[in-house]
Amino acid sequence: MPSQIWFQAEPQNKRADFIGNLNGQNLASPSVGLASLPYDPFTPYLLQAKMIGVGAGTALPTGHKASLQDTEQTYGLMMHFSKGLGVNCTYCHNSRNFKEWNESTPQRATAWHGIRMVRQLNNEYRCR
Ligand code: HEC
């Protein structure tokens, strides 16, 4: 039987369901640099292909929507990158505008391709 190389975080044990949905947060997890961010930013972005984008393209509202949860999950993934590489956010971004590619470093483009490679591995590679 083929086995996957992907391992998902344990879902929250909600017991009798009185404690609500933590959304994977406030656990100081090492996967997100001990921040209170959602501890599984991998499933939406590296297994699924949810858009990693929270910044609006214009100064005034023009229909762009990103929820707080999307934002926190994006930051969780970014914290993982930074911790994993031992670098600051500015290794890839210009902190004046995290979204803008023209002001980002070449390393961000490498990371962009890396994200797609990991997605492909997680979805298509099968051990025999
Ligand atoms: C190794 C490179 C790298 C590092 C380090 C990094 N990022 Fe990113 N970041 C990216 C890439 C690549 C994307 C775009 C991903 C995509 O579109 O698939 C991105 C996207 C983002 C976005 C979404 C931008 C948008 O379009 O709205 C934000 C916000 C962000 N990063 C913040 C941070 C923060 C904060 C840190 C530090 C904690 C950080 N990043 C560290 C590579 C990096």
Which ranges are low-confidence, i.e. pLDDT below 50, for 5 or more consecutive residues?
A: none
| Structural class assignment | mainly alpha
Mean pLDDT: 89
The helix fraction, in percent, is: 25-40%
Shape: globular
Rg of Cα set:
16 Å
CATH architecture heading of the domain at 30-55 and 66-124? Orthogonal Bundle
User: What's the CATH class label of the domain at 30-55 and 66-124?
Assistant: Mainly Alpha
N-to-C span: 7 Å
Instruction: Say which CATH homologous superfamily of the domain at 30-55 and 66-124 is assigned.
Output: Photosynthetic Reaction Center, subunit C, domain 2
Number of helices: 3
Number of strands: 0
Largest sheet: none
Measured by DSSP, the beta-strand proportion falls in under 5%
Give a description of the structure.
The chain is built from three helices and no strands. By secondary structure, it is an all-alpha fold. It has a domain of 85 residues: Photosynthetic Reaction Center, subunit C, domain 2 (Orthogonal Bundle), CATH 1.10.468. The N and C termini lie close together (7 Å). The mean pLDDT is 89. Bound molecules: heme C. Heme C binds next to helix 2 and helix 3.
